[in-house]
């Protein structure tokens, strides 16, 4: 599979497919951090050791394929332009750290982009499985299968008492990060998120923005993930997160019902004003676009707007990011130029929906 395909095709399977509870849960992600025994961790390894990690993984891939997904495509970060790496990050296929800071990093991708294996990021190996909707257990099952498949030929850095050894102490143990990306406009509009986030933190979980640590919750999209990796099994960590997410789903649905009862005309007006802005704007900044897209997605979920795919939020949240806008433009754009292209792209995408509905 070519680099151009991963770069130019905006919609990954997790964006276009509908999973369980997809009106609220956009995606479920499992990430396993692993390191190779007797090789220095990426924080202190040499250029030759970084190359050795990639050669070890390539040798494993050459012995056999992972049956469920077939061959992986290897993308080496040193061969990519900054804009290409940014696009892969905006699609959630690589982490910001791998895109911006990793020396001699690489990524193995499946054709449908559900599985990404990052190499020489903060750890030697980071297995990521990204599924549409609320499918944490399914993502964990696939991640464990890939982990077992790699481990048949690779000796991991492992301690019998504490578990898998990682560069960051917070990942020691299972090396598991489980996260769920959620669209929570009802809880935001009813001013409940400021109360909910501290309560979630007390349970050993963390709430972050759309691109993880340090990112902003654009478009009312939040990532909920575990903080504890030591002293619990992978299954227990996933179950704890699932329990909290189920409560959030219930609370979000209740908030939407309350809005429909107490502020129905105001909410409908908000939705259609945002739709009007997206349909007609000639200039739009990323924050305003994210807010309006969130409103339109809420309007679709609540049947105010019909005939438009709910996946439009997932798709346009990626398509309107700076990396993608510049990729389609064929080169760097100033912020004002990006705002113009963002508005044009959104108008064209909504027009396509209208034409398909009319046809």
From TrEMBL:
Organism superkingdom: Bacteria
Motif (RDXXRA motif of the pArg binding pocket involved in allosteric regulation): 338-343
EC number, UniProt record: 2.7.14.1
Keywords linked to the UniProt accession: Allosteric enzyme, ATP-binding, Kinase, Nucleotide-binding, Transferase
GO cellular component entries: extracellular space
CDD domains found in the cross-reference section: bacterial_phosphagen_kinase (cd07930)
SUPFAM superfamilies named among the record's database cross-references: Glutamine synthetase/guanido kinase
Amino acids binding ATP: 27-31, 92, 126, 177-181, 208-213
Activity regulation field: Appears to be allosterically activated by the binding of pArg-containing polypeptides to the pArg-binding pocket localized in the C-terminal domain of McsB.
A GO BP entry: phosphocreatine biosynthetic process
Domain Phosphagen kinase C-terminal: 24-255
Catalytic function, reaction form: L-arginyl-[protein] + ATP = N(omega)-phospho-L-arginyl-[protein] + ADP + H(+)
GO MF terms, alphabetically ordered: ATP binding; creatine kinase activity; protein arginine kinase activity
PANTHER family, A to Z: ARGININE KINASE 1-RELATED, ARGININE OR CREATINE KINASE
Family stated for the protein in its record: Belongs to the ATP:guanido phosphotransferase family.
Function: Catalyzes the specific phosphorylation of arginine residues in a large number of proteins. Is part of the bacterial stress response system. Protein arginine phosphorylation has a physiologically important role and is involved in the regulation of many critical cellular processes, such as protein homeostasis, motility, competence, and stringent and stress responses, by regulating gene expression and protein activity.
Record's protein name: Protein-arginine kinase
Species: Cytobacillus kochii
């Amino acid at each position: 599979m070519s680099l151009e395909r991963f770069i130019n095709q905006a919609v990954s399977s997790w964006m276009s497919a509908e999973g369980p509870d997809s009106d609220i849960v956009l995606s479920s992600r499992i990430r396993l951090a692993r390191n190779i025994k007797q090789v220095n961790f990426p924080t202190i390894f040499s250029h030759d050791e970084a190359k050795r990690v990639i050669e070890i993984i390539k040798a494993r891939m050459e012995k056999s394929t992972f049956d469920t997904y077939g061959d992986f495509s290897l993308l080496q970060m040193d061969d990519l332009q900054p804009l290409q790496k940014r696009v892969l990050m905006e699609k959630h296929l690589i982490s910001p750290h791998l895109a911006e800071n990793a020396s001699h990093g690489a990524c193995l991708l499946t054709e449908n982009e559900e599985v990404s294996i990052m190499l020489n990021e903060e750890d030697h190996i980071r297995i990521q499985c990204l599924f549409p909707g609320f499918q944490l257990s399914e993502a964990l099952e696939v991640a464990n299968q890939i982990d077992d498949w790699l481990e048949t030929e690779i000796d991991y850095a492992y301690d019998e008492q504490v578990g898998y050894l990682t560069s960051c102490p917070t990942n020691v143990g299972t090396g598991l990060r489980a996260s769920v990306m959620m669209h929570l406009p009802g809880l935001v509009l009813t001013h409940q998120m400021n109360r909910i986030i501290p309560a979630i933190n007390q349970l050993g979980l963390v709430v972050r923005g759309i691109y993880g640590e340090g990112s902003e919750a654009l478009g009312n999209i939040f990532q909920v993930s575990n903080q504890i990796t030591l002293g619990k099994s992978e299954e227990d960590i996933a179950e704890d997160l699932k329990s909290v997410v189920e409560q959030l789903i219930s609370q979000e649905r209740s908030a939407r019902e309350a809005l429909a009862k107490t502020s129905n005309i105001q909410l409908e007006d908000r939705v259609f004003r945002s739709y009007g802005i997206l349909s007609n704007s000639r200039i739009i900044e990323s924050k305003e676009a994210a807010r309006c897209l969130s409103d339109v997605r809420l309007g679709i979920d609540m049947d105010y707007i019909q005939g438009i795919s709910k996946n439009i939020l997932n798709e346009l949240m990626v398509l309107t990011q700076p990396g993608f806008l510049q990729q389609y433009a064929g080169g760097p754009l100033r912020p004002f130029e990006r705002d113009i292209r963002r508005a044009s792209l959104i108008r064209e995408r909504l027009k396509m929906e209208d034409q398909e509905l009319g046809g």
